Amino acid sequence: MKKGMRGVTCACVAALAMAGCQSDKGAGDNMSGGNEPSVVVKPFGKTRDGKLVHLYTLTGAGGVVMDVIDYGGKVVRLYTPDRTGVKTDITLGFNDVAGYEEQEKYFGSLIGRYGNRIANGTFTLDGKRYTLPLNNEPGGLPCSLHGGDKGFDATVWESEPLSEGRTVGVKFTLSSPDGDQGYPGKLDVTVCYWLTPGNVWRIEYEAVTDKATPVNLTQHVYFNFKGEAEGTILDHELTLFADHMTPVNKGLIPTGQIAPVKGTPFDFTTPWEIGARIKADDEQLRFGGGYDHNWVLNSQTGRLAPAAAVFEKTTGRYMEVWTTEPGIQFYCGNFLTDKVPSKQAGKNLCHRGGLALETQHYPDSPNHPDFPSTILRPGAVYKTVTEYRFGVK
User: What is the CATH number that goes with domain 10-392?
Assistant: First the structure.
């Protein structure tokens, strides 16, 4: 944790004002708990190479509590009330650093430089071909996933607590050197997590570079609104504000097509239980082993707009996802297994025991000139915002 960096940057002040306005409309208004907001910092352990990891506990004024570490910006725990007021941890994670290093490193993580897949681990930019680590091989087709062998998820970030009025947070900063995981340019990244009185978890991403480079930052938190390790998410109701999606080949790389979802198992324009059509005879579902695809959001303006909503009827927990991004990856935990221990003693996770909603630009965009560009150039500033708004019904 960097000492002597108290306060809020200019960028964060402006965004915080926006977050305060948004929280008045947020999904969490109906469970305001009157808590005293706070940020508490303590050691969480060390990485295998000896780096100290800090745990930040953000207690929100509206009742939500988050545990976050500066190793990969990972959300370790997220407590939200159900309709009776009982708070439960609704995210997948581990109780120590070793769990993330040895088990599932993407749980709750900041992802970069490039969230999602790049085909064959290669792209060409300004006439030069770049090669990235091949660390994923769905369908027998190799690709580079989530930034490579050591992405931003596996890095200890500089960090500091943030507080402004009754909104609390943590700021993460990272400098990724030129050539990191094969990517060109020195990339300086700042990510702010805010927890507002309206139970909005707001994430602000910002980056600058000294060479043209692809950038696609996201957050890989897994949710289970019944509670961590409390069964599958197949009975959760999902809405996606997207009339189209990007079909993939067997390697889960977009074909380049933008396809309508109407009349397919990918139509979540009205609420559907996740498991209702997951076994349909559909090539895309077979390729992904279920849902693991990018939806093209209806809003392509770059302004904050609704992307998704999730509801779990037994607890009443409800969440809206808002973002400035053009796409969202919905992944329903197809590769999760009961071999992965949970944070609860004596309990393991299960197949499809969590869902991820990763706001993003589309996968493999550097190799698809017709997709919205992910190329950041010197002098420009990468800025994007995502909000997870928690409430009950």
Answer: 2.70.98.10
User: Which residue, among 381, 386, 385, 2, has the nearest Cα to 187 in the 3D structure?
Assistant: 381
Q: Which helix (H) or strand (E) holds 42?
A: strand 38-46
Known active-site residue 54: no
> Is residue 220 flagged as an active site residue?
yes
Q: Are 321 and 386 in contact (CB under 8 A)?
A: yes
User: Which entry of 358, 361, 368, 387 is annotated as an active-site residue?
Assistant: 358
Looking at 54, 146, 220, 361, which residue is catalytic?
220
- Predicted model pTM: 0.91
In tens, the pLDDT along 55-104 reads 999 999 999 999 999 999 999 999 999 999 999 999 999 999 999 999 88
> φ, ψ for residue 69 (rounded to 5)?
-115, 155
- Quick check: 207 and 381 in contact, CB under 8 A? yes
Query: What confidence tens digit (pLDDT) does each residue in 260-270 have?
Result: 999 999 999 99
How confident is the model over 147-197, as pLDDT tens digits? Answer: 999 999 999 999 999 999 999 999 999 999 999 999 999 999 999 999 999
Number of Cβ within a 10 Å radius of residue 48? 9
Q: What is the DSSP string of 245-285?
A: EE-B-TTS-B-S--EE-TTSTT--SS-EETTSSTTSS-HHH
Report the C-alpha gap between 253 and 116 in whole angstroms.
9
Q: Is the CA virtual torsion 371, 73, 166, 321 positive or negative? A: positive
